[in-house]
Design a protein that fits this description.
Layout lengths: L1 H12 L3 H21 L3 H22 L3 H19 L5 H14 L24 H18 L11 H26 L16
Helix pairs in contact: 3-6, 4-6, 4-7
Length: 198
């Protein structure tokens, strides 16, 4: 009877069990590495910038993979916009507040509207850590795509460059207008916290 029980337990594990265990171990090591490098923000970004430099050198020296480069640039632009935007859009909150006031309810705005309002920190739609991780993964994927000729689609690259810069200018102008209208700055460089009535 005991032999049957042992046979059932090994049959239940199956032939893929060592692969699953190895994958779990690799996943744990990957997470530990990410946890170790989390506090080193400047070095993380320098590494990502170096990786991006290698990718751009690959594009320039090989004179190909312009579609991959364009798609990568658009993805990074979307990440940047999400990084600059507040988690709770004040324009949507204004609409909700107007509906609440008309309906008789009151709700507080996520951003301070007066000088005496309570301090509320700027909460990003995309946190810095996620921005860095997504940008690094995308750069690695784009670099990997330059290995295969399948992704080297012949295109007239000056049009892609011009279109990207127009898109960048228009989206950043709209973002800056949004920041000016709702009086928020997504960076805290040079700001000092003030406590009490000093």
């Amino acid at each position: 009877m005991m032999e049957a029980g042992n046979a059932d337990s090994t049959a239940f594990q199956g032939p893929l069990t060592p692969l699953v265990q190895h994958y779990t171990k690799l996943q744990r090591q990957y997470q530990q590495t990410l946890d170790r490098i989390t506090p080193f923000g400047l070095y993380r970004w320098i590494g990502t910038a170096g990786l991006l430099g290698v990718f751009l050198l690959r594009i320039l020296l090989s004179q190909g993979w312009y579609i991959v480069c364009y798609a990568h640039a658009i993805y990074l632009l979307n990440l940047l916009l999400a990084f600059l935007q507040p988690k709770f859009d004040p324009s949507l909150q204004e609409d909700l507040l107007a509906d609440e006031v008309e309906g008789g309810g009151e709700e507080s705005s996520p951003l301070p509207s007066q000088r005496d309002d309570e301090f509320r920190p700027f909460v990003r739609r995309l946190p810095e850590w996620q921005f860095w991780l997504s940008a690094t993964r995308a750069t690695l994927l784009a670099l990997f795509c330059t290995v295969s000729e399948v992704f080297d689609v012949p295109v007239y690259w000056p049009i892609l460059v011009m279109y990207f810069f127009v898109l960048f200018f228009l989206t950043m102008r709209r973002q800056i207008q949004h920041m000016i209208k709702y009086k928020y700055v997504p960076f805290d460089i040079g700001r000092k916290a003030r406590y009490g009535s000093h």
